[in-house]
Amino acid sequence: MHFLKNLFKPKYSPIQTQLTITSANGFHLRPIAKFAHETKQFKATITLIAHNQEVSATQVPQILSLSLEKNETFILKLIGEEAQKANEHLSNFFIQLMQNDVEIKAIEQECDNYEADAIQGITISKGIGIGTLTNYVKYKTHYALNDSLSLEKALEQTAQDLERLYEANKQKEEAKIFLAQKALLESELFQKNFEYIDEEIKKLEGTKFESRIADYHDLKKRIESYMGINTEYKLPNEDIDSIIVVDELLPSEVEKLSLIPAVKGVILRKGSSNSHASILLRSFKIPSIICHEKITSTGEYYSSILDANAGQFIDVPTEADFKKAEQKALTYKTTEKESYQNRFESTKTKAGKTIKILANITDINSAKEAKEQGANGIGLLRTEFLFTETKPTIEEQTQAYKTIFELFDEITIRTLDIGGDKSLPYINIEKEDNPFLGIRGIRFSLQEQTLFKEQLLAIFQAHNHKKIKIMFPMVSTPEEFNHAKTIAHEVAKKHNIQIDNIQFGIMLEVPSVIFALKEFDQMVDFYSIGTNDLTQYLFAIERTHPTLHIDVTSPIIMNALKTIIEQIKKPISICGELAGVEEATQQLITMGYTTLSVSSKLIPSLKERIRNV
Ligand code: PEP
Ligand code: MG
After folding, report:
1. Is 60 in a helix, a strand, or coil?
2. How many CB atoms lie within 10 A of CB 243?
3. Is 480 exposed, middle or buried (0-12, 13-18, 19+ CB in 10 A)?
4. How many CB atoms lie within 10 A of CB 182?
5. What burial letters (b/e) apply to 30-67, b meaning 16+ CB within 10 Å?
6. Closest ligand 1 atom, CA of 528?
7. At what angle do helices 603-611 and 319-341 cross, to 10 degrees?
8. How far from chain centre, in Å, is Cα 397?
9. Which CATH number fits domain 356-611: 3.20.20.60, 3.40.50.970, 3.40.50.300, 3.90.1600.10?
10. CB 531 less than 6 A from any atom of ligand 1
11. Of the bound ligands, which one is closest to the alpha carbon of residue 422?
């Protein structure tokens, strides 16, 4: 009988899609961990093919070992019952991952001249530290045997540690490093034994991806500590202000260093400014540079200067150098502190014009972060990211919206904006040749009204007579707006909910709207300009295109924004990326834009910049 079963097993032919790495950072650990996790939900065998190797899409280390860099491609191969569905979802998910992977740019260094000789390095994290140059010394200790755990138990404990670290830091984007490390830990490689890990490390040595070795070492060290072996770096004296010099740091070591007040700066002799340790050094605001020259402490106690703003280390400074560094440190700290301390203050330009700074958010955590960073409200709640795994019930949606609405007085919520580069596993949009020009945003909601009506009902139930704003994405004609608003009123009527306090507006992101502003101005309560899409449609360049790029501050875009504001009377804000771009702030305010909505992290510095406009 057994062979009969096999005989009738359905045969699936493989589906293959070519995908391109568009992030300047390459396909690195954090996006790989997210991608591998995403693949697990489908009934299909999924592999990645590149450089003549085929690896499992669920195995983080195997994907890492492909070492895929910007502009390289790989084939996503899928076989099985859900191959088609998985292919569409994962291709879109990958494009989105690449798009969201912010390029780590070299940090601009200031030029500075100290009297004494300075050694030049590369800035990892800005700031100025004064202290004794100190070698960070490695100690290896062995516990008594009865303190040690088996490999299996040690792996469990390590996974729990990483989960705890993520939970404790999850307000920060950088916390995802701990989740990515957890995904690496859960891969087959770590379930075998350490020899395999050492082999993997050897393969990476001397390659461009050497910085990834630190993640392997870090996990190994965490596991070993539960198995009775402890390797630890230590400061010889924690009472003396120190500038630490060390070959490399592991992410877990940075976390420990951040707790020692005597650490005034870090010099790494190896590594890169986009390693996980470097990202964490920036996040903990520890002044740091990378310097490949042989800097080492002689063990003598005297003070040196680390001016990470200029990327310089001055081993034996003069009196004048100390004065200069102290002054610079003070000014730097004051500006940093001031913008952060003033983040809850209202934002007025020098001429006394008040500018409202709102936040772009996706879920409850990012709403809390927005509050912490001083947002005056929410300018864009991208609801499509709230429920990414399964279709939420109306109650689940109501609860989530309620929690977010309660945090702020001003809220603009956008109805589902899927299609184009955004997809959800529980929504089926037929494959289109040009998805960015197809069923996107409000077009989808008007076709598939069930989901739209459920979402509207949840928003209405959650609003609790609060003045909130609802906006529809990708509206291109007045008729579309009218249709969507009529549906909203029908839903409210059917469920007997008062919605007098709710305003309805549009995302202004399709160029056709610019030519119908008179009509729109009679209908909408407000506009929010989505410069990301408006730019893509103005230039006919796909926003996720791997090689074609548009200068977001181009005079053509600025002209479009000027044309818009000159023609309308209803309130308007900008919620696309341009709202947070440093070079654009002055121009936008001069044109008359008084409400900008940006990602939370940018709020304190944007507010400070406006105070100087
Ligand atoms: C935009 O298009 O500028 C915008 C804010 O919306 P999204 O990036 O979510 O499409
Ligand atoms: Mg948009």
Report:
1. helix
2. 26
3. buried
4. 20
5. bbbbbbbebbeebebbbbbbbeeeebbbbbbbbbbbbb
6. 5
7. 100
8. 24
9. 3.20.20.60
10. yes
11. 1
Determine contact, residues 308/128, Cβ cutoff 8 Å: yes
Ligand 1 pocket member 529 (CB < 6 A): no
How confident is the model at residue 102, as a pLDDT? 66
| CA of residue 38 to ligand 2 center, whole Å | 24
Site to substitute for ligand 1 among 412, 474, 533, 537, most atoms within 8 A of C-beta? 533
Query: What value does the mean pLDDT take over residues 522-546?
Result: 90
Q: For 26-79, how does the pLDDT look when each residue is reduced to its tens digit (9 = 90+)?
A: 888 888 988 998 898 899 999 999 988 899 998 888 888 788 888 889 999 999
Find out whether the beta carbon of 414 lies less than 6 Å from any atom of ligand 1.
no
Spacing, Cα 576 to ligand 1 middle (Å): 5
What would the pLDDT profile of 85-117 be if each residue is shown by its tens digit? 999 999 999 998 888 776 665 666 777 789 999
DSSP run (H or E) holding 517: helix 517-523
Q: Of 613, 605, 611, 544, whose CA–CA distance to 580 is shortest?
A: 605
Tens of pLDDT, residue by residue over 376-433, are 999 999 998 888 778 999 999 999 999 999 999 999 999 999 888 777 888 888 888 8
Smallest-distance ligand from the CA of 577? 1
Q: Which two tokens stand for residue 385?
A: 């990211």
Rounded to whole angstroms, the Cα distance separating 200 from 315 reads 38
* Pair of tokens at residue 546: 């791997």
CATH tag, 119-136+235-321: 3.50.30.10
Q: What span, in angstroms and rounded, lies between the C-alpha atoms of 214 and 198? A: 12
CA-384 nearest atom, ligand 1? 9
Spans of all domains in the chain: 12-100, 119-136+235-321, 140-232, 356-611
Distance 577 CA to ligand 1 centre (A): 8
Q: Across the chain, how many H-helices and E-strands are there?
A: 22, 23
Report the nearest-CA residue for atom 4 of ligand 1: 530
Contact 589, 568 (CB under 8 A): no
What fold is seen in the domain 12-100? Answer: Histidine-containing Protein; Chain: A; (3.30.1340)
Q: With a threshold of 0.85, does the pTM exceed it? A: no
Q: Is 294 helix (H, G, I), strand (E, B) or coil?
A: coil
Q: What is the per-residue pLDDT for 470?
A: 98
The pLDDT value recorded for residue 417 is: 92
- What residues flank ion ligand 2 with Cβ within 5 A? 509, 530, 533
